[in-house]
Amino acid sequence: MQIYIAYKYTHIKNKSELKVNLEHLADLLEKKGHNTFLLNRDAKAWGKKHVSTFNNVSTIIKNIFKSQCIVAYVNSSVISPGIIFEFIVSKILQKRIVMCVDFQIENKVTFLKKFPTEIVIYNGIKDLENKIDKIF
Fold it and tell me: 3-state class of 127 per DSSP?
């Protein structure tokens, strides 16, 4: 299955930790036989390539269209317009949406809970790994 991984990148202070966690999540899904798409990894080489907003939007829509499932990694209580856009596109295309939300911010992102098909509340990357392993 093709899986699109959505996440907040802009204004995240510890981008290196985010990158490690996202790559860990992608590796976990890939070991189960899935293909994954991470915008900053696959289209921007983790920030080494500049891509215009127009091209980003085009790439996002194309890759959500190709995917059977969207996994949203939510670790910030600051609402991301990008994740909302990805959720809306996914809903329009009737994709399965799995939102993985850190338990520390779960009550601060209630608006986002309207979109997913499934919600996984996790406490640390190992807990997320165990929970993702059970649903994929």
Answer: helix
Report pLDDT digits (tens) over 18-32: 999 999 999 999 999
Residue 85 has what pLDDT? 96
Query: What does the DSSP 8-state code read for residue 118?
Result: E
Three-point CA angle 127, 84, 136, nearest 5°: 35
Pairing of strands 96-102, 118-122: parallel
The β-bridge relationship of strands 69-74 and 35-38 is unpaired
* CA 93/CA 75 separation, integer angstroms: 25
Question: Which residues are within 8 A (CB) of 80 and not within 5 positions of it... i.e. 6 or more apart?
Answer: 7, 8, 10
Q: pLDDT-based confidence at 15, cuts 50/70/90? A: confident
Give the integer Cα–Cα distance in Å for 45 and 52. Answer: 14
In the three-class reduction of DSSP (H, G, I as helix; E, B as strand; rest coil), residue 104 is classed as: coil
